Amino acid sequence: MSKPKHPRGVADNEAQAVLANLRVSPRKLNLVAAMIRNQPASKAITTLTFSKRRIAQDVRRALESAIANAENNHSLDVDRLIVTRAEVGRAILMRRMHARGRGRSARVEKWFSHLKIVVTERPQDGEAA
Predict the structure, then answer these.
(1) Structurally, what CATH architecture does the domain formed by 14-121 represent?
(2) Which of 54, 71, 84, 111 is within CB 3.0–4.6 Å of 25 for a Cys-Cys bond?
C-alpha cells in the first residue's frame, strides 16, 4: 500500500529541500550525496562539516534547510530524522572553448547539477512499523 502523499509530493512524515544549478558535475556531487544517504541527520551534518570536498558545504546547507522544513512546516521531531533520499540530477551544460596549438580549439564542458534531499522521521520504538 502506498503512503499518503502531501500536496507537494512528500509524505506526511517527510520534508525536502532542493538545490538547483549547483556548479559541480553530477558525478562529483553524487559522491558527496552517497556519504549521507540512509544516515541520521545529525551524523550526516557532522560528516559534511568535516568533508574535504568543496561542494560538501553547499550540501550541508541544503540538509540543514530540509531539517528546518521538517521542524517548521511539518512539525517533525528533529532528533529522529533520517536522510532517506539524496537525489542528484543533471542541469545545464556550459560549453566553452579552449585555445590549442596550431590555431585549433577544444571544447570545455562545465557541468551543473540539481540536488534534492528528503528527510524522514523514523518511528519511535513503541510505534508499529
Answers:
(1) Alpha-Beta Complex (3.90)
(2) 111
